[in-house]
Specification:
Number of strands: 6
Shape: globular
Strand order of the largest sheet: 3-6-4-5
Order of helices and strands: EEEHEHHEE
Largest sheet: 4 strands, mixed
Structural class: alpha+beta
Strand content: 25-35%
Helix content: 25-40%
Distance between the termini: 7 Å
Number of helices: 3
């Protein structure tokens, strides 16, 4: 895949995301929402950063199984039950992202929601990736 991150100077400088991603490739992978479920289907982690890390690991595991890598991510949506907590933990969450997925940021959005499927879940990530040949 080739990915061009587009961040127009007319928009505020992005931190931890890209305003737009122009992706060219031959396969699109749609990634289901991932929470902090372990292999037994139990939510792990008490804090938002702990759950974010596990949810991102799960998302990247699904992507890897489909033949992709973190740099192939074109779009990720983060759903959280507490936007204020997400903002408060943003520097730590950014560090987790960079450690696991690198600095090739996809287009991203954070959406506040009432609750997730699993009541213990604090965060869920979904997205899509564009893979090359």
């Amino acid at each position: 895949m080739t990915a061009e991150r587009v961040n127009p100077p007319e928009l505020s400088p992005p931190t931890g995301f890209s305003h737009a991603v122009v992706a060219t490739g031959s396969r699109v992978v749609f990634l289901a929402g991932q929470t902090a479920l372990d292999g037994d289907g139990k939510v792990v982690g008490e804090t938002l950063p702990e759950q974010f890390e596990r949810a991102l690991i799960n998302l990247l595991t699904a992507l890897t199984a489909a033949g992709g890598t973190a740099s192939d991510l074109a779009r990720v949506t983060v759903y959280t039950t507490d936007v204020a907590a997400y903002r408060a933990h943003a520097p730590r969450l950014g560090g987790i992202w960079r450690r696991l997925a690198g600095r090739d940021y996809p287009a991203m959005a954070v959406v506040g929601i009432v609750r997730l499927w699993d009541e213990q879940a604090l965060v869920e990530l979904d997205g899509f990736a564009v893979l090359g040949e």
